[in-house]
Amino acid sequence: QVRLVESGGGLAQPGGSLKLSCTASGINFRLYAMKWYRQVSGQERALVASISSGGQANYTDAVQGRFTISRDNVWNKVYLQMNSLEPEDTARYYCSTFARGRDFWGQGTQVTVSS
Q1: Alpha carbons within 13 A on the beta-carbon side of 67
Q2: Rounded to whole angstroms, what are the CA distances from 18 to 8, 24, 109?
């Protein structure tokens, strides 16, 4: 069974940092692209960052230069390092992959940026 489990969310001050982690199981992890999405309650889930199986990273303009996505193919983990956090970054963050013909999602981890 494909399973994605996120961790690392919490409360941060504006300008602060958090590092999110996602652990994958049930897939040959190194073969799949991984993505981070975020969602504010009542709004659509939005793509934040993606990383290919080979490590090529892409970011939405809103986080470019502040967030870094990375992966560890030995331990089946994908990370999202978030720096210079802004209140607008407040959302629930989800790890995702497309495998076995469909999208898979973790349970999400909440990030709140507030003073």
Answers
A1: 28
A2: 7, 20, 12
Q: What is the pLDDT of residues 76-109, one digit of tens each?
A: 999 999 999 999 999 999 999 999 999 999 999 9
pLDDT band at 10 (very low <50, low <70, confident <90, very high): very high
> What whole-number distance in Å separates Cα of residue 103 and Cα of residue 4?
11
**Calpha distance 33→104 (Å, rounded):** 12
- Residue 21 pairs with which residues in a beta bridge? 7, 79
